Amino acid sequence: MSKKILAFAGSNSKQSINARLINSVVGMVDFAEVDNISIRSFDLPLYGIDYEKEIGIPDDAHKFNDLIKKADAFIISTPEHNGSLPVAFKNVIDWVSRIDNDIFNDKPMVLLSSSPGKRGGLSSLGHAESILSRLGAEILGTYAFGSFKERYNNGSLDEEAQLEINNLLAKLEDKIN
Ligand SMILES: Cc1cc2nc3c(=O)[nH]c(=O)nc-3n(C[C@H](O)[C@H](O)[C@H](O)COP(=O)(O)O)c2cc1C
Hints:
Layout: E1 4-9, H1 17-26, E2 33-38, H2 49-54, H3 59-70, E3 73-78, H4 87-97, E4 108-114, H5 122-134, E5 138-145, H6 148-151, E6 152-153, E7 156-157, H7 159-176
Parallel strand pairs: 1-2, 1-3, 3-4, 4-5
Antiparallel strand pairs: 6-7
Bound molecules: flavin mononucleotide (FMN).
């Protein structure tokens, strides 16, 4: 039976460059089934302990958690907002962590980031690496795809990005197959 990868961008933007990067990367995977989702499809209020106590954990947090549980591996790309993860991404993670604090259960992950700037969201990538590994992800490697507008062309990534990402995908393939 083929292995399942859950892929998403940590962005709630309709025009997300990280979602476009994820779409290109998903097109490079031929060794597993990929479920490419958007966090925009999950209706989650801003996490708060009062909300949780009074109303409970939203159904969409359980739906997200179910997708994580069904996956054998993950490919995630985070944007950078003021040097860290966007609120929308952290919010999904915070909600799901209230169901299970070993969310990723030692499963492998390729972690990416992108921004229009040259550093490609490198500090957000570092924060995401620390948060997601604390929640059980085995991060096989990371890559920050900088200067998105110059290096992404109608779904194609420049040569350097293709090489770096192919290396990360090879590690993921080895790990799950
Ligand atoms: C509130 C805010 C803060 C931002 N801070 C950064 C930043 O610290 N570093 C950076 O490279 N880009 C920053 N940006 C620009 C984002 O990289 C850019 O909007 C990018 O398109 C976001 O990724 P997405 O399109 O996948 O949502 C910021 C954008 C916003 C709206």
